[in-house]
Amino acid sequence: MIKYRDTEYRCSMELTIDLIGGKWKSLILWNLGEDTLRFGELRKKLPQVTQKMLTQQLRELEKSGLVNRFVYTEVPPKVEYSLTPAGKSILPILASLCQWGLDYIGKTEKINVDAACQNRIDKYINSNANQE
After folding, report:
1. What are the residue boundaries of the structural domains of the chain, listed by start?
2. One MF term from GO for this chain (predicted)?
3. Strand pairing report for 2-4 and 78-83
4. How would you class 27 by CB atoms within 10 Å of its CB: exposed for 0-12, middle for 13-18, buried for 19 or more?
């Protein structure tokens, strides 16, 4: 049994899914992997997510210590989001998930992968391999 922030989990996978699971959290982390982004910039990268849902997911990621939120004291208010070191540590795992998805559908369908996308996947997978 694992207890984290007043919640009990039966295994670490249950905890992990609670931290990064759902439709949007992994995509938010992936998009923040390259840049610090303002809310509107992140919303443009994820046009299907509602403003309410994006706000909720960013708050949960911030509470979990995976995302930094920096508020500038100016008018109009400016808020930027970036990954914490813990958030950055998930990027090689997300890259492996991306590669798995490409490999999986590549078995049955011909796919064209954008070179920039593949380079990003390779970057995180290779950086993780170099750390081991």
Report:
1. 24-84, 90-132
2. DNA binding
3. unpaired
4. middle
